[in-house]
Amino acid sequence: MSTALRHQSSSLAAVQSRVGKRHHVLQGEFFVTDDPEILLTTVLGSCVAACIRDPQAGVGGMNHFLLPGAMERAAEKEAQREGVHMMELLLNGLFQRGARRQHLEARLFGGANMFAGLSEIGRQNAAFAESFLGYEGIRVVRGSLGGNQGRRVEFWPVSGVTRAQSIKAAEAPVPMPVAPAPRGNEGRGDVELF
Amino acid sequence: MSYLSHLRVMIVDDMTTSRMLIRGALEELGINQIAMAADGEQALKALMVQPLPLVISDFNMPKLDGLGLLRALRAYQPTSKCGFILMTGKGDQALIDKAKPYGVAGYLAKPFTAPIVKAHIERIFGRM
């Protein structure tokens, strides 16, 4: 699992494909932009996506990660390194486009308890993301973590408009190595505006 | 008691979480004399007052990046011989090429584990 994550995050530039001005962020990827027309989307189950932007610099981005569930201490550290790396890639991408740390605002989504027996994974991912942002002094403005339903998230990084819609378990992506749910799934559920 | 317990190291990284993880990896190896800095400028100021034998530095940082820090350390006689390990993104060959002329002792591709850090330190200071 960790190898797959690493592989994806390093080759993300190559695999990023746009459909119009819409960009879907898959597990292990991140995307940063200052183009106000770009809409970032993702579909989350136990995974977490951080949507972070600097409203003053007009730049924002999203990542999408899953820390492998880990009970052993050593494995837990390994998982944390992966998570920190994913957050760092997003933050460095923002800084390179002029974002300032003190202006950043973050919204966290995902971390749902999707499957019996895997329920800890969603919670661990949500806790990791919250504590990371706490340590780095990055303000968490809104978002939606936990619960037992997957989420479809839409985020306009420049304006900051964010929409999260809950989806049926069957439509939520199964964490890697199985491929995430294909684009264009019509979800049904409540819409929350952020 | 290995020499690692006597080795003094500076970690330079702008992410608090990264500094903590690297510190944890070094402590696993028995390295306890650890100084930390949040960017190249802070590190340079501290190292000019108190040179240390080993610096493990991130590349992407505000004010002074890892390459800038390396060049400044090499230009100042008391720090010109310190071991310097640069943390890079995976496969960032352009950065590695830029840093090479300044005598980098190793490159750590994030994310990395304690045994990888150990291998790098052994390459600089010899086996324990």
Automatic annotation (TrEMBL), chain A:
Chain's role: Probably deamidates glutamine residues to glutamate on methyl-accepting chemotaxis receptors (MCPs), playing an important role in chemotaxis.
Record has Hydrolase as a keyword: yes
SUPFAM superfamilies, sorted: CNF1/YfiH-like putative cysteine hydrolases
Amino acid composition bias (Basic and acidic residues), ranges on this chain: 185-194
Catalytic activity: L-glutaminyl-[protein] + H2O = L-glutamyl-[protein] + NH4(+)
Protein name per its UniProtKB record: Probable chemoreceptor glutamine deamidase CheD
Enzyme class: hydrolase
Keywords per UniProt: Chemotaxis, Hydrolase
TrEMBL record, chain B:
Record-listed 4-aspartylphosphate modification sites: 58
TM helices/strands, residue ranges: none
Keyword DNA repair recorded: no
Keyword annotations: Phosphoprotein
PROSITE patterns per UniProt: RESPONSE_REGULATORY (PS50110)
Top-rank lineage group of the source organism: Bacteria
Cross-referenced SMART domains: REC
Chain ranges of the Response regulatory domain: 8-125
InterPro entries: CheY-like_superfamily (IPR011006), Sig_transdc_resp-reg_receiver (IPR001789), ST_Response_Regulator (IPR052048)
Record-linked PANTHER family: TWO-COMPONENT RESPONSE REGULATOR (PTHR43228), TWO-COMPONENT RESPONSE REGULATOR ARR22 (PTHR43228:SF1)
Name used for this protein in its record: Response regulator
The species this protein was found in: Mesorhizobium liriopis
UniProt lineage: Bacteria, Pseudomonadati, Pseudomonadota, Alphaproteobacteria, Hyphomicrobiales
